[in-house]
Amino acid sequence: MHRNLGLSAALATIIAVTGVGRADADIGEAIVGGIIGGVIVNEANKNRQRKTKKVYRAPVNTAARAEAREVQTALNYFGFPAGTPDGVLGRRSRAAISQYQAHLSYPVTGYLNDYEKSFLLGSYHRALSGGPVTHQQIAQKGMGPRGLLLIYRDEAAGVATAAAPAPQFQQAPATTVVVAPSPAPVPAAPAPTTPVVAPLPNAAEPKTETAALPNFLGGGDAASLASHCNTVSLLTNTNGGFTTLASMGDPNQVLNEQFCLARTYAIAEGEKLAASIQGVGVNEIAAQCQQFGPVMKDHVAALSLKSRDAVLQGVSGFVLGSGMSPPQLAATSKICLSVGYRTDDMDVAIGSGLILVALGEQVYAELMGHHLSQGFGATSRQDLADQWYTMGIQAIEAGQPAVFAPGQPERTALIKAAVMGPDNAMNAPVQPAATLPTFKIGE
Would you list the DSSP string of 184-226? Predict the structure, then answer.
């Protein structure tokens, strides 16, 4: 009763002060914003002013939105409905994440930790690049695309799984050709031709091998960096997170973790650049980037044999004769670096990274150190790896912006400790790298 009397008195006060003509509008505004222990008449005006003010929202983190869209796309691919990939991890996306976590026996939180996100995205890219093998594995598990996650998880953990049947490539069904009687045989159908793509500038002609060297190990597939990084991520998650300076025990584990982290950032950066290209699809970009393999093959091979400076001298000659502007070649190389890592093509990845270093972006030298240290796409040569690690570390210390995990400044000290040893890492000076032309690459 007292509350009703108070409300009536408040409304009467508004009418008396502001006039009958404005009563209806002001009453509504007063109810919304003016009754807090009594009606404050000026609050109605304040409410009107608030309605006319423009709302300025903080800029959206485009990198985070892009990553969120990729997470949603991957969840949808594996059968966890996250809705339209809009980069906003709302209620539906959280439910999909919870289903993903339950499927793999992770703690169901609705929020991805670093390992769960890395495994999800890595599995998605692996599935896309698997071709017929992916389809066979899906059929083998009998769970749809969700079964791939279990297969990849078990592989990363070293758990033996039933081998997928060998790929069976079926020829197109033969067609009956009606021809007039003739003693001449029907000509065979022409062999399929390779799609013609525009070659990179100054691309070397493929060499014809007249005599092959003995190969007693056969033509087995090279080790998969994607699979290796899944295993590393599993160990990282088991150990409670990335190794730090304080917790470092095994330097090799540190380098493996940082290699896979750099790979993830390189893939994301290249995909962001590729998304800005109008009128060219993902498959077309990948086909073009495959040319980096044969074009840079000799330089990639030299990585395992020659000193850093000798390798870069050869790559610099290629850059100077390419006819492409440095910004154009740098952007192309970043896109193809992403494609190489995403498709597990080490020749493309290493070749693209070498071009970026030769163009003056020496922070990418870290990747060459990782390849030589871990033996992916190159012979394991720690002596040569140290030269590349040194260049990458010095580039960061000289002020070049970090391209891998830029929000983790302690990462350089961690790599330095893993390469040089914890006792020498903090005090030992880094030897100056060879002077290379540095070009400012426009974004």
Answer: SPPPPPPPPPPPP-PPPTTPPPPPPPSSPPP-TTTTPPPPPHH
